[in-house]
Design goal:
This protein is elongated. The protein contains no helices and 16 strands. It has a four-stranded antiparallel sheet with strand order 6-7-8-10, with no helix packed on it. Strands 11-12-13-14 form a four-stranded antiparallel sheet, with no helix packed on it. A hairpin with a 2-residue loop joins β7 (about 75-80) and β8. The N and C termini lie far apart (about 50 Å). By secondary structure, it is an all-beta fold.
């Protein structure tokens, strides 16, 4: 069997969201992210700007937004060098939470006690209450009981309760 090639024309006619793949025809795109169709070519959307000069180590796990019920939210960056407040554009502010892995899983949740950002990483989880970070252990305030904190790898909410995925467990 010999190899063959085909030419796919640039989607200069734009984005077609009204018909199926079969009826699309040449020159249309099914997905058009960050490109602008011109008469005979497709140009990439130009421009980006740095929001922050975050950490000394460029590898990051992602952005962790904090959304309170009222008031202004915050934006945090999880990186190999720790957790940084990047709410204000410019230089990142070290939160004092450090770890050696950039992995982070997070969620926002609200209780009668307030609004919280819960972050799970490869060591004890941390919680943000809108002003301060707390490393959660069985003796911290608030305390994390019923599970070994350092084994938690993911967090979710079910029926207004936090549910955890822990290492080497199906329970």
């Amino acid at each position: 069997m010999s190899a063959s090639s085909i030419t796919i024309p640039a989607p200069t006619k734009g984005w077609n969201a009204s018909t199926s793949n079969v009826g699309t025809g040449d020159g249309y795109a099914l997905v058009m992210d960050n490109v602008i169709p011109m008469e005979d070519v497709v140009e990439f959307r130009s421009g980006c700007s740095w929001h922050t000069t975050a950490a000394t180590n460029p590898r990051s796990a992602g952005l962790l937004p904090y959304h309170p019920i009222s008031g202004s939210g915050k934006l945090f960056l999880a990186s190999d060098a720790g957790l940084f407040d990047i709410t204000t554009p410019g230089t990142a502010v070290n939160t004092g939470v450090t770890w050696t892995h950039s992995y982070a899983d997070s969620l926002n949740f609200t209780t009668a006690g307030g609004n919280f950002l819960f972050v799970v990483r490869n060591s004890n989880p941390v919680i943000f209450n809108g002003t301060a970070w707390t490393v959660l252990t069985s003796t911290s305030s608030p305390a994390l009981t019923g599970v070994t904190a350092s084994t938690i790898r993911a967090v979710s909410i079910l029926k207004n309760r936090l549910c955890f995925c822990v290492v080497a467990s199906l329970s």
